[in-house]
Design goal:
223 residues; 5-stranded antiparallel beta sheet; 50% helix
Length: 223
């Protein structure tokens, strides 16, 4: 069992340090008081507060970790965890992904900004004072898109108006974009630029998309 292996490792380490026999070293290790368990800041690891995740999903990060651990989610692929959260716990697509990514970060399956396959991603979001159909068209319409992308040419891989669009960049990376209506005259966009090789590249793209969303705001306001 893993516990026995850990104990033997500690005993042998003490033997090397003190020169004691196995029995003596084991006796000291077994009677040594256990250190108090350190509390884990799940929210910090996940990158989102307990208050926000509970408001949107009904559970804190601690509860999500408990529930998903019981299902063996730490051994599952990303898409299987997301499907579990969506189908069993009735959390919609956007928040099922948020729960899944947060859980993977907490369990050490990915770093902030990193995907399970080892690549990185850059994410940005922004809210605009326009209907969601107008915001979606600013991404889907090639001539409008070039205005705020400084003429960059990208390929639309898939598009579902006015909910989502996937763009292919000329370096092989992919931009997954989601849109959400916030009433009749306000909407938000959230993007994830994926398949990036390292954190430094992801940080550069994050700044790029912050600048481009500023430019998008100018186009939408008629500036």
């Amino acid at each position: 069992m893993p516990v026995n292996k850990d104990l033997k490792r500690l005993v042998r380490a003490r033997m090397r340090k003190t020169g004691e026999s196995y029995t003596a070293a084991r006796s000291h290790i077994k009677t040594k008081p256990k250190a108090a368990a350190k509390s884990v800041d799940y929210a910090a690891l996940a990158g989102m507060s307990d208050e926000k995740i509970k408001a949107k999903t009904g559970c804190t990060w601690e509860r999500w970790v408990y529930a998903l651990d019981r299902k063996g989610a730490d051994k599952m692929a990303h898409r299987d965890i997301a499907a579990l959260v969506n189908e069993k716990y009735k959390i919609d697509g956007w928040w099922s992904q948020t729960v899944t990514v947060g859980y993977e970060r907490i369990k050490g399956l990915r770093a902030r900004g990193q995907r399970r396959d080892g690549t990185f991603e850059a994410g940005k979001s922004r809210t605009f004072n326009v209907p969601v159909t107008v915001l979606f068209d600013a991404w889907a319409n090639s001539s409008t898109r070039r205005r705020w992308l400084n003429g960059e040419s990208v390929k639309v891989r898939t598009a579902t108006a006015p909910k989502s669009i996937r763009l292919g960049w000329n370096d092989g990376s992919v931009i997954a974009v989601g849109f959400l209506a916030k009433g009749k005259s306000k909407s938000s966009v959230a993007l994830a630029h994926t398949k990036l090789p390292d954190r430094e590249t992801a940080n550069r793209w994050k700044q790029y998309w912050s600048d481009r969303l500023d430019a998008l705001g100018e186009v939408l306001s008629g500036a």
